[in-house]
Amino acid sequence: MNAVLPQDSRAVGRVLLVLLVLAASLRLSAQTSTQIADLRIRGDIRAIQPMPDGSFVLGGITNYYNNTRDTQLLRIQSNGTRAAFPVTTNSAVTTMVHEAPWLYLGGGFTVVNNVSCPFVARVNDTTGAVDATWRPAPNGDVISLAMVSGQGLFMSGAFNNVGGLPRQQLALVSTTGAGKPDPLWKCDANGQVDRIIAANGWLHIAGRFTQLGGTTVAYLGRASLSSGTADTTWRPAPNFQVYDIALDATHVYFGGSFTQVGASATQFLARAALTNGTFDSNWKPQPDRLITRLALSDTAVYAAGDFRSMAAANGVKEIARVLKTGSVDVSFVPQIEGAVMAIVPDGAQGVWAGGRFDSGALTGSGFARFPQALGSAAPTYPAEIEAAGTVRVMKLETGGSAWIVGGDFDRVNGTTRRGAFRLTTAGAVDNAWNPNLKGNFPIVTGVDNFTASSDLLLAGQFEMPDGLYNCIRVNSTNGTWNPSFHPQPDNLVNCLLKNGSGWIIGGNFKFVDGFTRPFLTRFDSTGAIDGTFNPLPNGQVHSLYEIDSEVYVGGEFTTFGEGQTIRQAPYLARLLGNVPDLAWQPRPNQAVFAMASDANTLFAGGRFTRMARTPRANLAQLPLGGAGTATSWNPAPNNTVNTLRINNGALYVGGAFDSIANYVWRRIARFPLPSLALDTSFLTSAEDGVVTSIVSDGSTGLMVGGSFTGWDNVFTKRTLVKIVPSGGGPSLIVTPPPPPEQTDDLFLDYFGAGTNWYSPTQPINPAAGLGMVWTEGHNQSRPVARVQWSTDLVNWQESGDTADGVERTITIAADGDQRVAWISPAPSRVYFRLVLTAGTAPAAQPQ
Predict the structure, then answer these.
(1) Where does 389-625 sit in CATH, by number?
(2) pTM for this structure?
(3) 642-682 pLDDT, tens digit each
(4) What does each C-alpha distance from 663 to 512, 544, 610, 667, 739 come to in angstroms?
């Protein structure tokens, strides 16, 4: 059975007093929505797990398999035949490891098969059924997994807590019971860990750290499998990030963005002795750009990355075959375009590769076999795999004749457009406008108009013909690039803000035009860096907003400045010149992604659970004056808020949420000002994916973009729609009343530790055998639990009630502390809620 209960035990005291399980927004045609663009990206495969039956499980972001809409985790045979594997996650799977009978998944997801499984989960390797009792629950993305039979599962990523224990980026969890972390094994890293491999008594660790286990070990190291103690004598010493490693019997091969190893000018790809870590200075393939993925055959190492040549061999790009002697196989030059993001050996001296690539055709994207003797032919594609593109930003051109749409996509309405396209106000793609962005997977996250000309500013992560740019000036008529404008941030730009005659940009960069400008900088209309502006946040900037010449900054930072002038301003700050206003301290506890403002307050959205010491989940209202303490408004969306927009007297909220303001309400919501009560006449929603951009269409409508593959139950409406809202104005909102006998104290006494009971995601289709699942606590006196059912979220029925002329019965079965409820006969769609009554619970039926 599939459990249905996200939102962790910290939410016990929330105002919501009814248990709504697996629900979706009511679909009344209150708005008009029109498809604008179907954006696609080539297969976005980020992990490949070979299975014992010869099939492959493919992780990543995939929505289409051979042109058929599909959102399940893909499992395919080598000939492209689809294997049944009913596993659905709410975000990408980026790492996997198999130990029968379980397939372990790690990534950015929080729900698997409607079960709360934050960032790591395991499913049956045959049926795909999720193990709801195994729940390590790290608080951040899991990027790499390594299994050691008999000891447990090692995992790495971007977390700092696992199962309630502090664990910085690395942890060992049990593969029995609830998957609790080992209380004795600890090896903290001070930066993200991208890859781990267990071998010969050691956990080999690569990433973006400079300290491992409290000792100075930078970017590549190892720790004892038994104790977690870092080996301070094993230090190959690359000078920058290592993204992937591969081991054979004698060497560790490593790839990344480093340009030196020890005292040697060895860049991007190197190897060291496995026993003592001594760098092999004679093995130097010397790719011209970074390496992100590695895989070994008996005789060679396959390296994938952003390079355009290797060992001075022009034409070797994206993926190369490097013999273990160090020479590059110049006959291996596959004709592909795009990024390789996962590779595994094929058992015959070649590799299987996944990513976002193809051979220039639109068929056979994302997953292919690269045999040793490929030469310059196209690889073998077993099937076409695609994902929905993402609209991240929209900007109306000066004069209002067209939109510039930016995001993460390769084509729009069948036309190749990488990262950006021009859309006329009539809804047609401008075929004459194409900036021809380069790179493995170009992304545009910011667009603005040059005030003195018809040119445009594009920002994100992309290349131009002569290198990495990430921020360029293009002609608005045809998209032609102006090479004289080149601030050149060295990494992703997340956001930009017009500021005077120039711009402020925020992102994940460290250098801009050769100057040290981490995460935030300002430049003028020529692209020249402002030497007086250097706030020095210590983490990514995701959003920028200006109110009365004051700049507000949101992101993943916690401080500004350096040395003796470090100032605490976590995740959201108001700048006074170069420094944060320390009198205004909202202090959310996690990232801020979006901002909007009315006359007196700032709205902040993101991924957080508190503002200062006040519970505020993912969305808050903050006074512009005083200390910035959050107001009492608390709609508490149950997942990330990505975008905020005030338009025609209302605040629009978009993101990945399934509920908001105590209602099942998916992806987009409207709050009229100044009441800020959820407008229940605004009934429109993405069916899946997320909403990442909302802008006015210049009239009474809205342009809504994201990564969704359906809108208002119409699955041909994808990624960019135009909405003409009807209704509106403040509505009388009545929260669904709780059952009169249910109280928070009963919930506290009833549920097991860590149980999640609130998760409106999708309505249950009982014909598929799904039921509602929960876990009881080990309390001596348990309340009585009964399950009510509804087909419309309005009229709730008891077991044995008759609705639509059919009498239906709820059955509750027990398996230890786990309870499973199902309904018979099953309606086509049903919602459940749990009702608790004080008293002693009768024994449930065994399963």
Answers:
(1) 2.130.10.10
(2) 0.75
(3) 999 999 899 999 999 888 998 878 899 999 999 999 998 88
(4) 45, 30, 20, 12, 16
